[in-house]
Amino acid sequence: MEARLAVLLAEIDHQWNYILKIYDSIEEKLKRLKRDKDNEDLRDSLAYRLHNLYCAYEDLFKIIAKFFENRIEDPSRYHIELLRRMLIEIKGIRPNLISEKTYVYLNELRGFRHVFRHAY
Fold first, then answer.
1. How far apart are CA 14 and CA 17, in angstroms?
2. Which of 3, 13, 70, 90 has its CA 20 to 30 A from that of 30?
3. Measured CA distances, 11 to 34, 67, 68 (Å)
4. Model-wide pTM > 0.85
5. Whole domain around residue 111: which residue ranges?
6. pLDDT tens digit string along 11-42?
7. Domain tally for the chain?
């Protein structure tokens, strides 16, 4: 079990660092966009980064779900169920990973990702 836990912690750390890099990229693009509001390429790039941000969070949630519970029954609702799963505590297994407020923000970002993927 110790080895599995070490792998889990390493995967979480790696994914969290990737999420932080995406945040840095988003902040940089937002600063540039404030100076150059009409730059369509920059807006598209920012949209792509926001898409990547949710994907990175979802990958983090998959790592955690795979280690602790690994069952989402309805594949058509996989993305929302995975996010919802991170909101709840699983007694004796793991605490909740995100707060209600974070859930709302991430769910909005999830919706944006869906629109982004289907628009492009």
1. 5
2. 13
3. 35, 11, 14
4. yes
5. 2-119
6. 999 999 999 999 999 999 999 999 999 999 99
7. 1
Q: Which residues of 42-76 are buried (b: 16+ CB within 10 A; e: fewer)?
A: beebbbebbbbbbebbbebbbbbbebeeeebeeee
Residue 118: enclosing H or E segment and its boundaries?
helix 100-119
78 band by pLDDT with thresholds 50, 70 and 90: very high
CA distances from 42 to 24, 26, 47, 51, 54 (A): 15, 11, 9, 14, 19
d(CA 88, CA 97): 7
Provide DSSP, 46-112: HHHHHHHHHHHHHHHHHHHHHHHT---S-GGGHHHHHHHHHHS-BTTTB--SS-HHHHHHHHHHHHH
Apex CA 58: angle with CA 94 and CA 20, to 5°? 95
